[in-house]
């Protein structure tokens, strides 16, 4: 099954309208025709099952036959705060895999040991969109603006569970062991440090803000690998 994206404002009570490049890809590349059944996500947790009713130059109309709420979505709402990387390709990879695994929000961070000080926000949003369609999710992960570690701590109060994996954490405190005591529907924020790891001060600040230390094992992992491992264990 091929999945497409329909903007929320292009959803009517009984129909959807897929526009521009998304419509061209549907018609010219995938050769969809009138009468074909398609699935289109609005990025807000709804997947529309629809039959193509009309094809124009830059838009495709389809009649809705079914709506699927939280299609291919986890009960856990997971936010990933993660340091941007010196190699942007590795951060791109991480956003793609985080989307496939089911993350709801990605917050790029600048930590004490972070080397770059900027990221290509639109590119990251495009990667998340492509990954959402590829794996058939109905939620488009929100890519937040780049922010400081301290600012993340200030807004972290809204999450039920807050985790900080780091090298000095007790090896017995794994994520699966820790989450046994929590409801599957609780919101989770996990933060991953830069190539040089979190500083001692950052770990102290996080613990003081209610984060819990967890271990990802004995080996030192790259930032993008650590993010994928943590999300896999949570989701």
Q: How does this structure look, described?
A:
31% of the residues lie in helices and 27% in strands. The chain is elongated and about 60 Å long. Strands 6, 7, 8, 9, 10, 11 and 12 form a seven-stranded parallel sheet that branches. It has a five-stranded mixed sheet with strand order 1-3-4-5-2. It is built from seven helices and twelve strands. The protein is α/β, with parallel strands linked by helices. It has helices at residues 20-29, 88-101, 121-135, 149-155, 175-179, 200-208, 223-234, and strands spanning 3-5, 15-19, 37-41, 46-55, 59-69, 78-83, 105-110, 142-143, 147-148, 161-165, 188-192, 212-214. Helix 5 (175-179) links the parallel strand 10 (161-165) and strand 11 (188-192). It has two domains: 3-69, Ribosomal Protein L25, Chain P (Beta Barrel); 78-234, SPOUT methyltransferase, trefoil knot domain (Alpha/beta knot).
Strand content: 25-35%
Distance between the termini: 24 Å
Number of domains: 2
Return Rg in Å: 20 Å
Helix-strand string:
EEHEEEEHEHEEHEHEHEH
Q: How many β strands by DSSP?
A: 12
How would a textbook summarize the main sheet? 7 strands, parallel
| Overall 3D form | elongated
CATH superfamily of the largest domain: SPOUT methyltransferase, trefoil knot domain
Helix fraction bin: 25-40%
Helix segment tally: 7
- CATH 2nd-level architecture of the largest domain: 3-Layer(aba) Sandwich
CATH fold label of the largest domain: Alpha/beta knot
Q: What is the CATH class name of the largest domain?
A: Alpha Beta
